[in-house]
Amino acid sequence: MNQNTERKRPPPLKVLSGQLRTAENRGTTDGGDGCVIKLKKGRTLQASLVWMQGTVLEVHLDRNTVLLIDETGTFAVQGVNNIPRGKPCLSQGKYVMVMGVILALSPEPVVRAVKMADLSELAAVHRRMWKLEVEELQQLLA
């Protein structure tokens, strides 16, 4: 992807893994051009850069991946070894934020990480608020 394409990319859309799992590909079969997220009342949103949160289930540094889970299911994050200051996020049980580009939707969503942050210190608050944040942003954008 060239620099001009990166600049034109819209800001990240807050999503749940379950929404990606049921989304429709936009253009390619692997989700590389993003997807269309289905919302309530027949509305949709386009997404290629997403913001997700979840708990680290598995860390596979040899494969440059982690497996996360949110309240709607699991999702994989690739490219974790390349994230500046991402190492503190890479332990089982941590609650983290991931911003990344959608690589695949099914059978499990896969995101290539652009940024990661450890939210474990206030995990209970972040976890409770996340679904509400996702819903509020999506309602504003739809």
Automatic annotation (TrEMBL):
GO biological process: DNA repair; maintenance of rDNA; negative regulation of double-strand break repair via homologous recombination; regulation of sister chromatid segregation
Superkingdom per UniProt: Eukaryota
GO cellular component: cytosol; nuclear speck
Gene3D superfamilies: Nucleic acid-binding proteins (2.40.50.140)
Entries under PANTHER family matching the protein: RECQ-MEDIATED GENOME INSTABILITY PROTEIN 2, RECQ-MEDIATED GENOME INSTABILITY PROTEIN 2 RMI2
Record's protein name: RecQ-mediated genome instability protein 2
Organism of this sequence: Xyrichtys novacula
